[in-house]
Design a protein that fits this description.
The protein has 205 residues and is an alpha+beta fold. It has helices spanning 4-20, 23-37, 52-64, 96-99, 145-162, and strands at residues 70-74, 79-81, 84-86, 91-95, 163-166, 195-198. It is built from five helices and six strands, in the order H-H-H-E-E-E-E-H-H-E-E. Strand 2 (79-81) and strand 3 form a beta hairpin. Bound molecules: protoporphyrin IX containing FE (HEM). This is Cytochrome P450 84A1-like.
């Protein structure tokens, strides 16, 4: 299995890139952090329950950039799926990346839009909404999901609460390369380079 660290590092980088490229969402997440946490202390575990937009921005990142895009399994028995006969012990590859962007399931599937998850009945990734499967589903789904979510939320919350972020050398948002390298994992084709400026009213170190 791919390391938990590589998957998490990739999603943190994608989340930062998606938000920098979407200033309205970035400013909504940062305002939420100021409203919930303030500017004179750091984020704590007890804050996460109230950081609803930040958590949806991470969900949306996992939809667009699942770090395990292809799920490889073997059928235990003969099966019939959508009229296709799949024999026992067939190798089946599920393209989670394509499913998470299926235009029949998602409105504007290519657009980073965390607010889609604010709607009543929006899909969740706990395993029963098959249009959204960044952690797969069923008894071989990711056992590290809760740890991964906690780590992702904590890291991104600190990065966005403690700093404001700018692209280097007057680079425009439209120039940010959002290509990936498609394979067993889904890293960015070009590393994200962004300049942090401290934003809190106390020394960070
Ligand atoms: C954003 C972070 C992560 C994502 C999106 C993710 C996603 C996945 C997916 C999709 C699978 C199933 C693969 C398949 O069915 O072919 C999986 C399996 C697994 N993951 Fe994760 N993972 C993440 C982080 C972690 C972490 C932090 C750990 C451990 C600390 C972990 C441990 C595992 C293990 C042990 C399996 C194999 C389970 C089995 O084969 O029964 N993952 N992960």
């Amino acid at each position: 299995m791919f390391g938990g660290t590589e998957t998490i590092a990739s999603v943190i980088e994608w989340a930062m890139a998606e938000m920098i490229r979407s200033p309205a969402d970035l400013s909504r997440v940062q305002q939420e952090l100021v409203d919930v946490v303030g500017v004179d202390r750091r984020v704590q575990d007890s804050d996460f329950e109230k950081l609803t937009f930040l958590r949806r921005a991470i969900k949306e990142t996992l939809r667009l950039q699942p770090p395990v895009p292809l799920l490889q399994h073997e059928t235990a028995d003969d099966a019939d799926i959508g009229g296709y006969a799949i024999p026992k012990q067939a190798q089946v590859v599920v393209n989670a990346w394509a499913i998470n962007r299926d235009p029949e399931a998602w409105d504007e599937p290519e657009t980073f839009k965390p607010s889609r998850f604010l709607k009543e009945g929006a899909p969740d990734f706990k395993g029963s909404n098959f249009e959204f499967i960044p952690f797969c589903s069923g008894w071989r789904s990711c056992p590290g999901m809760q740890l991964a979510l906690y780590t992702l939320e904590l890291a991104v919350a600190h990065l966005l609460h403690c700093f404001t972020w700018d692209l280097p050398d007057g680079m425009k948002l439209s120039e940010l390369d959002m290509n990936d390298v498609f394979g067993l994992t889904l890293p960015r084709a070009e590393r994200l380079v962004a300049i942090p400026t401290p934003s809190l009213q106390f020394p960070l170190f």
